[in-house]
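--- STAGE predict ---
source: upstream dedup step, 1 unique chain passed
mode: sequence only
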Amino acid sequence: MFGLGKKRKVERECADIIGQQLHGQINCAFENNEGSTGERLTSAFVAGYLYGFIGFGFVMNGIHGNRLIDRHLKYICNGVIPGRLYEIFRRNLSILEMEKGLDGRKKTAEFETGTEVGIYDSGTFCEYEDIEGNNLYKYLIGEELKYTVMQRQEGVDGVGRKNQIYIDSVEFDTG
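--- STAGE serialize ---
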């Protein structure tokens, strides 16, 4: 019984750290270029970034679990931009669901790119990595992003798991 409460407390502390990092990027973007930031904040890219950054932010902080994003996404978003950021995320997910049945996949591609960038930026929580974790800021003000994409390669690793992941470096121009 006591272990569960302590675990949730650690998760909440981690959620606060993740939220502070997101808040810092968004706040700086508004200070630098309010018009561009306000316009780009509602994009599928931002929703994907939140998903990737928050999910892997927990992993980089040593906390694993399938339901962490579900449990803490709304809390983190409401801590960053109360009542607005979580609604932006939900609205984009609804659009992505509608797009599944259509031929166009523009929003889905934006979401997937945002997720990749968010995953990369979550490396900022790893003390052994030299990652600035500021691509959301760059995206919001219209600067070029630099990140590494994780790609899947079919195969079996040393312990019999399928789908090894390898890293391939790319640059994404948002300009």
